[in-house]
Amino acid sequence: MSTSVARNMSVSLQRGRQESMLEAHAGDHGSLKGTSYTIEAVVGAGQKLSLQVDTGSSDLWIASKSCSSSSCGQTDGHLYDASSSTSTGKTFSITYLKGMVSGPIVWDKFSMGGYSLDSQALAAATVVTSEPLSAAFSGILGLALPLNSIIAELIPPVTSNSPDGAAWASNLFSITPTSAAPAHRFLSLLLSRPGSDAVPAQLGIGRHPEFITQPSAVQYAVLESDIRGTLFWKVDVRAITVWVDGQERPVQLSSVVNGPGALPSAVLDSGVPLILTTSAIANGIYGAIGVAPDNKGQYYVPCTTPLNLTITLDDRPPIPLHPLDLTSESGSTFCTGVIQAADSVFTAPTVPADIILGVPFLRNTYTVMAYEPPDDAGTFGASGDSIKPRLGLLGITDPARAMDEFHTVRVLRQPVSTFNSSSLPLPSNTGATPQHLSIGLIVLISLLGFFALCLGLFAVRWCVTRRRFQRRPEAMFPPDIPTETEGGYAYARASSCDSTKRRSRNTIDPGKELYDDEETMRSGRWEAYMQDYGVVDLGLGRQDEVWGDDTLVGGAAPARGAHERRMSVGVPLLSQEPPGRVDEFGARAGDRTSMAGVGTLAGGGKVEAVV
User: Which of 37, 135, 197, 476 allows an S-S link to 9, with CB 3.0 to 4.6 Å?
Assistant: First the structure.
């Protein structure tokens, strides 16, 4: 179900010491541009080719050296050599939302992420139209359910080890011995946002990535089936809510596919860079913020106006979507809405849904495509033989953080730096932890540390100086002021740097306590000085602010903490405004490496697939 408007990204699959990379690259079709999420595979006699990860289709095809279509000419020679493959005698043909592919079906060796299949059925495409192939994008790896596979329909799967037409996922989870197969029968998907490393782009095979530290938070539901059975990762849409100034504005929902009064259905499709729906739903979403379609049916939103949206699927909690994912900068004032109406698509019998939730939605979720149901704690047990698919979803977008980033990019026209992106907390139910500290916080901590060091040095010097004066009390007062050696006043042995107060002893009569503590002794000495010199005591009751224990000049000692010094340090957040226009993901216009959505600047990144 992928369109020719694609987006490419890289993912590395790891199993043991083996690794295969999935990369992101730009695709282009007319005025629409996007980025496909692709993964590197080894095919046939060691050929390394990149394939788009497509959760909306179920078949594997690669443009072959026999392809003469213009799309195949864009691969810079990165085409599949099927000379070592085995022919099946069958021909493959598929039509996407835009474009079509056809060619002979063959069996060949296929390896990815450390898992190798000796006889995987795939199409060696000889005709490819309206697919933005490139040097790093030569075909499609379909991850929809096996029942939707065209190749499997032409070459029915068998239970023996004989070659058949089973989809890649079916063969993957059927590897024998079972100890060589993935530990659990599920695939999972995280899609990173260009320009940010807050969320990694990863494809999980049989286990959750480390980014998800609480897999039990993933909520699973039974898929919506069609007449033929369960074909897609398809769900019911219970609610769509637009939030404006903190007020919720529910969108009235209707279904073209399921009939009047029924809930609309949605298919999750990583091969589509947009969110496609019916005009009725699209008008309701944009109408909540006062936007209507233009004469061509397109939606344009003021770039400083956030589309703050949540989608409720099945019985899960609402899933918030990042406003930067929902509009794309296409001019200085107005941005193109990434949610677009496509009524002609949904009236076709090949698309049994009312909404296609493409990459803009999937960037905001951790998606688990399970071939067996987990228990109530989200744990997968021993693998069975039958397929009982479940779709697990976990929202990973924090609405407050998303709005802050939108304001920074669209209103302040400043980039959202890597540090700022990854230092903000994700929703608590993701279990994710921050990856970095923000620059502003690092500066604040550094300044506070510097102040603490200065105060520590001051305190040490003050203590040393005070002890020196203790050894020479006569230097502190005029000769007629009694000192310790003259009797009458005795210094406590503890300095004010100690937290424990001690009683002073009379050096002439050790059995008699003169003062309760050092503070009282000092107060007495000060009063004696004032009386002898006829100075009015202006210091009685005044607190002398010093770092350390409470110290008085005159008066009785206060309770601890009575004049505790507090400090508030304000440090402005550092910002960097590079020259030139800054796009919605913080990249300068001159740094663009790929496009996401409709005219959205995107940075090339790498995605890890965890095995």
Answer: 37
Q: Who contacts 503 (Cβ-Cβ below 8 Å, separation ≥6)? A: 492, 513, 515, 516, 517
Pairing of β 600-602 and β 319-321: unpaired
Q: Which position has the token pair 């091969």?
A: 271
Asked whether residue 30 carries a pLDDT value surpassing 90, the answer given is no
Cis ω for the linkage preceding 317 (within 30 of 0): no
Hey, what are 357's tokens? Answer: 């939730």
The 3-state DSSP class for residue 327 equals strand
Query: In whole angstroms, what is the distance from residue 5 CA to residue 328 CA?
Result: 15
Quote the percentage of the chain above a pLDDT of 90: 48
- At position 149, the amino acid (one-letter code) is S
Average pLDDT over residues 391-404: 96
Phi-psi region at 359: left, alpha or beta (left = phi > 0; alpha = psi -120 to 50)? alpha
- Could you list the beta-strand ranges (E) of 388-541: 390-395, 504-505, 513-515
CA-to-CA dists, residue 30 to 130, 335, 544, 592, angstroms: 10, 18, 76, 18
H or E segment at 527? helix 518-533
Structure token digits, residue 217:
């938070």
The pLDDT, as a whole number, for residue 10 is 29
pLDDT, tens digit, 9 for 90 and up, residues 108-133? 999 998 899 999 999 999 999 988 88
Closest CA to 244 of 198, 185, 305: 305
Q: Would you say the pTM of this structure is higher than 0.85?
A: no
pLDDT of the residue at 523:
55
What's the pLDDT at 187? 97
Length of the chain, in residues: 611
| Burial zone of 404 (CB within 10 Å; 0-12 exposed, 13-18 middle, 19+ buried) | middle
DSSP notation for 403-441: HHHHIIIIIS-----HHHHHHSPPPGGG-----S--HHH
